[in-house]
Design a protein that fits this description.
Strand 10, helix 4 and strand 11 form a beta-alpha-beta unit. 16% of the residues lie in helices and 32% in strands. The protein is α/β, with parallel strands linked by helices. The strands form four sheets. Strands 4-3-6-1-2-5 form a six-stranded antiparallel sheet, covered by helices on one side. A five-stranded parallel sheet has the order 9-8-7-10-11, sandwiched between helices. It folds into three domains: 94 residues, Translation factors (Elongation Factor Tu (Ef-tu), domain 3); 110 residues, Rossmann fold (3-Layer(aba) Sandwich), CATH 3.40.50; 84 residues, Beta-grasp domain (Ubiquitin-like (UB roll), Roll). GO terms for molecular function: 2 iron, 2 sulfur cluster binding; metal ion binding; oxidoreductase activity.
Amino acid sequence: MHVNIPVIVTRIIQETETVKRFTLTAKTMELLPAFSSGSHITTFLPTQTGMLERHYSLLNDPVDMLLSYEIAVQKNADSRGGSLYLHTAVEVGSELSISYPKNHFLPSFRARHHVFIAAGIGITPFLSMMSELSRVGKTFELHYAAKSQEQCAFYSQLQTQYPDSCRFYFSADGPAARLQPVVMAGQPIGTHVYFCGPETMVSQFRAAALSFGYPEKSIHFELFTPITPITRSPFVAELRKSNKLITVEEKQSLLEALHQAGIHAPYSCRVGGCGTCAVEVLEGTVAHYDTVLTDGERTQHNQMMTCVSRASCEKLVLNL
């Protein structure tokens, strides 16, 4: 059972034309739960089409007195209701429900140097990381891509706080100004690299980091939306322990189908990045869309993440 925290929106700042910063203050607690840098919360949004769950990084320095949390939300043109609801229906005084903080994107304190690569609203998890690393005397650099300076959220804040550690890349300035993977080349041994942005950008930079010789353990990334499946065909899941057959529809995840059938199925991130929803596969082949399993583990087809992965056959048999 997930225990949620009721909060009140106590401040809203328009950071850019499409990005708002929200300050959330606990309604019933004196202090909010502590968290580590890179953490996010889930917001539960009561939209007209039903309750939506959306994940947002916490912007605060983790050592701040936690009277409130801060999140930033970009209004997406193709929003299915989450960002649109926060931008149009939420105002100061509105009440929301949020989860306890979770962290699947923790900075490595074994790293000798940190290279943060952000695109658009992907800047948000790095704000708390930079605060913490600066406070403890660790070195880092930020490479931040946006359409223009006007659309670059937190530009002034970053320039003020970390003038020697940030470099900005604005696509409006032309192709030569775009952020390229080469910024990761030639870094000191022991450097860790971190990516947050669209799936295509993360995939490009991850592949480049591997080609530059970075070990897997030195490459970190976070996705707030799942990888788009190549195949979305319906399939049947046989639940061996429960003695049930369920159908997973084309626009439905296996996790959603399990919950709809009344099956207890744990989950956390819903984007295939944490491993909480892993289940054992007894029969069938899996189309994997997570970022948890290794290539070798995927070829065995003996486990899957129910939040994102699907069948590449007509039926899977699961140990549920």
